[in-house]
Amino acid sequence: MRCIPQERIRNFSIIAHVDHGKSTLADRLLEITGAVSAREMREQYLDRLELEREKGITIKAQAVRLYYQREDGEIYQLNLIDTPGHVDFTYEVSRALSACEGALLVVDASQGVEAQTIANVYLALENNLEIIPVINKIDLPQADIERTKREIEEIIGLSAKEALLVSAKFGIGIKEVLESIIHKISSPKGKRDGPLRALVFDSWYDSYLGVVALVRVVDGKLYPGQKIKFLSTGKIYEITKVGVFAPEAATLDCLFAGEVGFIAAGIKEVREAKIGDTITEVNAQVKPLPGFKEVKPVVFAGIFPVNNDDFEDLKEAIEKLWLNDPAFSYEMETSAALGFGFRCGFQGLLHMEIVQERLEREFKLNLVSTAPSVKYRIKLKKGKMIEVENPVLWPDPALIEEVLEPYIRAEIYTPKEYIGALIKLCEEKRGIQKEIKFLTPHRCILIYEIPFNEVVLDFYDKLKSYSKGYASLDYQFIEYKPGDLVKLDILINKQPVDALSLIVHKEKAYYRGRELVSKLKEFIPRQLFEVIIQAAIGSKIIARERIPPLRKDVLAKCYGGDVTRKKKLLEKQKEGKKRLKLIGQVEIPQEAFLAILKI
């Protein structure tokens, strides 16, 4: 590895909305700088997870060192920090951006500016980054470059006169991107001889090295054998390995101020190398780098194995995944309907979907999850305030004085023809309209405050279907507000099924209860005894369905004879059914839980 002077180092990131070509542009930069040979090249090279490649999204941040030789012979070190693009990972994106001096803003020429484009630009501006607009996919027949330039200027407020026109797929304009990075993005300013300060912007668990932390050295240097301290936990470690990804891992003797790389120090848990934390030397008196906060889960759901024999495998799989994902939390849970499982916490719905898919694919498990919920604050009549994220733990309504639910500020970017349908959707979800802004004559932004529990179920799917896929959503948590919420229980033959319990708004409880019981009636197979499905709030039944029993024709052998004989046989059958109903277990199939989730 070459030693490059600080003034010839550039640290930059690529920010874009999902599917605007961020990973493809990163591929071309790897190719043109010779970091990856044509033989080794594959699509979405930096997306290591199978899920990332399949969904076309980046889930984990990556940092790659590239060397670019200009025509005058000068060699520059370019550190590309590839960040996730989805709203669930906003904190990780903000920390990765704070490790850079500039960013490439990639906008799809056929789609224009979308929700995460703007959200990520604001994050970049908060970190005082130099932003270079890049208009991608100019080769597409539906590309409208002039309209995209206008949107960048009118919506984001950046000058698009010098926007770079590229086709990442065909490698058009990539050289201009590299030259622009060198001209417009400033070199890092840290002191190489100062006391050590380094920012952790990602970490994961490696079975050989322990926790590997991706770091940006702000001041000083990092080298093997050095004693370091994490400021948020106060824990001290000795560095065992220092290196960079170029794009494969390569060991170095030292990382200097301004450089980006990885360290290993025998750390046992990812939670000890927190994203956004500051690393310093043991006795150094330095201020922590700004912006650090604890990542807390906001969406909760129960995850259970379909087959109870798989519980130990699920436990092992969750423990392994937990090592690699600091924002994921879990605790054991038992359910009368589903057996043993785990109550898990996630950063958002996409995060929940990714965790469940990874558990199923990487560990070959067959899982069922309960309906996602959020964390409520409940003020009891005794004056105590409790937090509840699991409907099973909801206190008796007689003890509750007030329920507070989390609200988000949702920004929906949409073409104007879908405004009516989306306003209707937000009103259905108890949204409070704050503003409608027309960004251009054809595009607008709807700003609503919406209870988070209305968003976690099906809001995103409906948003996409109402707008034919054109609308995009960005949201952030704002505060807790009082809400008229109740616990809706589902009873099967008077036995509550805890896995199907929901927290709903009182006004919607009747409709949700009706929907749930009629859906369950479709999916629960007929038994030899009568099955009664009920939805209840406390002791009040608000909806009911009946599944009639399978009935053997006991009168088949009675052709003629006295009517009392027939009555006797029917009475005997009736008694048998009653006995069966007392001891019979109703098996709820997995399809029923999945159907409930769709509601």
Number of helices: 13
Number of beta-strand segments:
32
Would you identify the regions where 5 or more consecutive residues have pLDDT less than 50? 50-57
Distance between the termini: 56 Å
CATH class of the largest domain, please? Answer: Alpha Beta
Total number of domains: 5
Largest sheet, if any? 8 strands, antiparallel
Key terms:
single chain, Rossmann fold, Elongation Factor Tu (Ef-tu), domain 3, Alpha-Beta Plaits, 8-stranded antiparallel beta sheet
Give a written overview of the molecule.
This protein has 599 residues and is an alpha+beta fold. The protein has 5 domains: 6-184, P-loop containing nucleotide triphosphate hydrolases (Rossmann fold, 3-Layer(aba) Sandwich); 197-281, Beta Barrel (Elongation Factor Tu (Ef-tu), domain 3), CATH 2.40.30.10; 299-370, Elongation Factor G (Translational Gtpase), domain 3 (Alpha-Beta Plaits); 376-483, Alpha-Beta Plaits, CATH 3.30.70; 486-598, Elongation factor 4, C-terminal domain (Alpha-Beta Plaits), CATH 3.30.70. The protein is 27% helix and 33% strand. Strands 11-10-16-7-8-15-12-13 form an 8-stranded antiparallel beta sheet. Strand 25 (432-438) and strand 26 form a beta hairpin. The longest helix has 21 residues, at 563-583. The radius of gyration is 29 Å and the shape is elongated. The model is unreliable at 50-57 (pLDDT under 50).
